[in-house]
């Protein structure tokens, strides 16, 4: 159901936000104002809808970011540091999202010096309708950036090709785990595989590139399923890979079942964060507890997991071992890699103390006979 909020105009307006934040209590249209005025309104639960020059709105947003993004105080307790980091992220996002613009019929942005945002919004919302709505400027800029990445693609060395990922689907920008999948020894025989939680379809494509003739990739996110189908077709693996919208496992059994679940047991605050955060490790447990019955004889389950949660004290060091044991799975081998993404080397990152020690592993699991 659309969320309508009162404005200083004659009618209420629909408020759209891809996060789980509560909508503002009201909105005020203004042609010009400063960052301090927008922030004052934001703290009073009132959104400012920019009706003036688009580039001026971007400058005001940049000034707002400088005011609200303060260095985090050091925490003695690691888990507290993580939760405070997440809380600051949520609070900062809520405040910044109080500067909005009105999107008109056909996804038009009718502001001086505004870019054409129709393609970016179509990536997120599909076909436009004729009803205007309000959208946080910060999110619109994110949509525009994601749209450019979607068109350009993310180059995957293991495929020697790019995958194209729209907003709302997890992108393999941090792709060191793909190197593990590329070099892990395949079980013998390996005529079939499942890719659980396929996202962009990059793992399914990589398995196809390794010569597995029959692969089923699954995801519950319709955007991800559509993205995976497009990438699989573009890469020429349509005859080998079938994409299904289903929770965890498809019907049947396979020689190899791969899963790269969310690595951190925390609550996501938006749809795209479900690829990063999994409350209580629900997907991980569902995969491990169900995979044994889906494996062919001599088959393997490959689990890709980071130990970042352990360094953040969100998971005990022996948690995975206990999960494997409870699921009647044994470890046939482990491949490891260190993170290569930018945050891993950023000493100013609030979680640098944990990221600097992170290791990503591919666990080769077999059923206990």
Summarize the structure in words.
A 7-stranded mixed sheet has the order 11-10-9-12-13-15-14, with helices on both faces. It has a 4-stranded mixed sheet with strand order 3-4-5-6. It has a two-stranded antiparallel sheet with strand order 1-2. It is globular, with a radius of gyration of 23 Å. It has 2 domains: 3-149, no CATH class; 153-367, Rossmann fold (3-Layer(aba) Sandwich). The longest helix is centred in the N-terminal third of the chain and has 19 residues, at 78-96. It is an alpha/beta fold and 369 residues long. Helix 4 (118-125) crosses helix 5 (137-152). It has 12 helices and 15 strands.
What topology emerges from the helices and strands here?
Elements: E1 3-5, E2 13-15, E3 26-30, H1 35-43, E4 46-50, H2 54-68, H3 78-96, E5 99-103, H4 118-125, E6 133-136, H5 137-152, E7 154-156, E8 161-163, H6 176-183, E9 192-196, H7 202-209, E10 214-219, H8 222-234, E11 241-245, E12 254-259, H9 282-291, E13 295-306, H10 308-311, H11 319-326, E14 329-337, H12 352-355, E15 360-367
Parallel strand pairs: 3-4, 4-5, 9-10, 9-12, 10-11, 12-13
Antiparallel strand pairs: 1-2, 5-6, 7-8, 13-15, 14-15
């Amino acid at each position: 159901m659309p969320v309508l909020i009162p404005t200083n105009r004659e009618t209420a307006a629909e408020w759209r936000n891809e996060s789980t934040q509560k909508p503002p209590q009201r909105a005020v249209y203004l042609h010009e104002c400063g960052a301090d005025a927008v922030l004052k309104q934001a703290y009073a639960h009132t959104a400012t809808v920019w009706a003036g020059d688009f580039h001026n709105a971007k400058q005001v947003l940049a000034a707002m970011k400088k005011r609200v993004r303060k260095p985090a105080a050091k925490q003695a307790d690691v888990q507290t540091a993580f939760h405070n980091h997440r809380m600051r992220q949520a609070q900062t996002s809520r405040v910044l999202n109080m500067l909005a613009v009105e999107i008109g019929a056909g996804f038009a942005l009718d502001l001086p010096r505004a870019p054409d945002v129709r393609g970016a919004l179509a990536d997120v919302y599909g076909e436009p309708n004729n009803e205007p709505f309000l959208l946080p400027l910060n999110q619109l800029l994110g949509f525009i950036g994601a749209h450019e990445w979607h068109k350009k693609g993310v180059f995957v060395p293991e495929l020697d090709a790019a995958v194209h990922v729209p907003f709302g689907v997890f992108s393999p920008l941090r792709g060191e785990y793909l190197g593990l999948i590329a070099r892990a020894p395949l079980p013998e025989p390996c005529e079939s595989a499942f890719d659980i939680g396929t996202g962009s379809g990059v793992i399914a494509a990589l398995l196809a590139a390794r010569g597995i003739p029959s692969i089923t990739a699954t995801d519950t996110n319709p955007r991800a399923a559509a993205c995976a189908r497009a990438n699989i077709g573009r890469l020429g693996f349509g005859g080998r890979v079938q994409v299904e919208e289903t929770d965890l496992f498809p019907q049947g059994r396979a020689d190899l079942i791969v899963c790269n679940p969310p690595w951190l047991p925390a609550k996501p605050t938006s749809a795209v964060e479900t690829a990063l955060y999994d409350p209580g490790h629900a997907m991980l447990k569902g995969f491990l507890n169900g995979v044994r019955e889906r494996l062919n004889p001599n088959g393997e389950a490959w689990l890709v997991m980071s130990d970042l949660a352990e360094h953040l004290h969100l998971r005990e060091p022996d948690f995975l071992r206990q999960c494997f044991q409870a699921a009647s799975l044994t470890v046939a081998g482990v491949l490891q890699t260190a993170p290569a993404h930018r945050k891993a080397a950023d000493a100013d990152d609030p979680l640098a103390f944990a990221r600097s020690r992170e290791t990503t592993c591919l666990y080769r699991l077999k059923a206990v006979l």
